[in-house]
Amino acid sequence: EVKLVESGGGSVQAGGSLRLSCTSTGFTFDGSTMGWYRQAPGKECEQVSSIDSDGRPHYGPFVKGRFTTSQGRAENTVYLQMNSLTPEDTAVYYCAAHSTMTSMQGLRLMSQCPHPWLEFWGQGSQVTVSS
Fold first, then answer.
1. Tag placement on the chain: N or C end, fewer CB within 10 Å?
2. Do the Cβ atoms of 67 and 14 come closer than 8 Å?
3. 88 three-class SS
4. Max CA separation in the chain (angstroms)
5. d(CA 76, CA 8)
């Protein structure tokens, strides 16, 4: 059974930082594509970042250099380091992965998280940024 388990969410003041982790069991990120998504109340599920199967990272336009996604392949863990957080970053954050896609670049916006277009999802982690 494949499981993606997230950790690291929480509450922080504007300008602060958080690091999310996504650890997989039964699935290897190496050679696969994965992404971080978020969904705020009343809004669509938007892609925060993704890593192609060749390791190339991509970021949503709202990131503006504030976030970094990295992959600890030996640990089968992917990280999302978020700096300079603003209240607009408040959302539930999800990690997602797919075993046969090479890139999630075509999936930047979806109606909901989790979504059946992607094979595996984490349980979601609340990030709350106060002003």
1. N
2. no
3. helix
4. 41
5. 16
